[in-house]
Design brief:
With 208 residues, the chain is mainly alpha-helical. It is built from eleven helices and no strands. The longest helix is centred in the first third of the chain and has 30 residues.
Length: 208
């Protein structure tokens, strides 16, 4: 065998070994380190794959941050089904409220709402955008409870309905808002409630 052939074979074998090593490394990361892969794939623009790895990581760890990551990616690409699926799973996590408080602390005073309300609104608006209007209102009311914090899910669905001139949904929201115990609301919540409820008034042609 000539010297040239020996050199060429050595180079080829080396390249094959390197490629094989990279393949094995990537497969190992996918299997054993989904939390690492969710960030790598996101940086490469592979959003759906990133959500998959974040979801896999969550199944293994139960860490709220992993399913929150999947939810945020879904929000970023406007994947309504995944926003609802991952978002609802995030809400059910036992550490959800603690995680929300941590996110709020990290953002400081630069936000008017809260991470908790942000997740609620995204889920409910996704339902509305899917055409599940009554379900969106029902879930928004459930998540808001007998309170009315700024930028809550009820307000978000109402604004979506107003944008679409959806008279029936606006009327339904008005009806549900009237069932809230207004007297028990904080002064801040009352102010916000009044502003939002006013959007459903006779003056705007939506009151029943």
């Amino acid at each position: 065998m000539s010297w040239d052939k020996v050199v060429k074979r050595a180079i080829r074998d080396t390249l094959l070994a390197i490629v094989s090593l990279y393949v094995i490394m990537i497969i190992s990361l996918c299997i054993f380190y989904p939390s690492t892969m969710m960030g790598i794939t996101y940086d490469l623009g592979m959003d759906k794959l990133s959500m998959h790895f974040a979801n896999t990581a969550y199944k293994r760890s139960g860490y709220a941050g992993h399913i929150a990551y999947a939810t945020e990616v879904a929000i970023g690409i406007d994947d309504e089904a995944k926003i609802i699926s991952y978002g609802e799973r995030l809400i059910k996590n036992k550490d959800f409220l603690k995680y929300c408080a941590k996110k709020d602390d990290a953002l400081g005073e630069d936000i008017d709402s809260s991470y908790e309300q942000y997740i609620y609104t995204q889920i409910c608006v996704a339902k509305y955008d899917q055409g599940k209007k009554t379900a969106a209102v029902t879930r928004a009311v459930e998540l808001t409870g007998n309170e009315f914090p700024p930028f809550n899910a009820v307000a978000a669905v109402l604004l979506a309905a107003l944008k679409n001139s959806d008279v029936e949904t606006v009327a339904l929201i008005r009806e549900k808002m009237q069932e809230i115990d207004y007297a028990s609301l904080s002064e801040t919540d009352k102010t916000y409630y009044d502003a939002i409820f006013g959007l459903t008034s006779d003056e705007n042609g939506y009151a029943s």
